[in-house]
Amino acid sequence: MDTKALREVAAAAIISDGRLLLAQRVGPPELAGMWELPGGKIEPGETPAQGLRRELREELGVDTVIGGRIGVDVPLPDGMVLRAYRVSLRDGTPTALEHSAVRWVAAPELAAADLVPNDRAWLADLVATLNAG
Ligand code: C5P
């Protein structure tokens, strides 16, 4: 593997009717029960948009349109970087296929949610986006 390549984990800010979709992690134990923006690792040869669309089909059973970036880059261990993208739903109803639950939150519920630590970096941007919508 090319150790110089920055592997990306892409996460989706899926927004519909002024609410954001949160997904509840099943593991690892220290994150189980906490809420995150769904997503996952981009595979070699995929663009971030292709990889995120694939992850959202696998995790939520939905077809999506991937938009622009939101929030800062969050450094992860092992030379990976976590990035969030604005996403809209094209088809399907989000279903927790790999999470324990999903829920839609407006800005006040988002601010009070038990988010995974990495995703807290985006909280102010997400709240501002929801309030602007
Ligand atoms: O979901 P998965 O385990 O494939 O994600 C890869 C890495 O990215 C993990 O370390 C996970 O905790 C992190 N991640 C995150 N916030 C997200 C999605 C993934 O911190 N919204």
TrEMBL record:
UniProt KW keywords: DNA damage, DNA repair, DNA replication, Hydrolase, Magnesium, Metal-binding, Mutator protein
Family: Belongs to the Nudix hydrolase family.
Organism name: Rhodococcus daqingensis
Cofactor(s) the protein needs: Mg(2+)
Spans traversing the lipid bilayer: none
Domain named Nudix hydrolase: residues: 5-128
The protein's Enzyme Commission number: 3.6.1.55
Record protein name field: 8-oxo-dGTP diphosphatase
GO MF term (any one): hydrolase activity
Enzyme class at the top of the EC tree: hydrolase
Reaction it catalyzes: 8-oxo-dGTP + H2O = 8-oxo-dGMP + diphosphate + H(+)
Domain of life: Bacteria
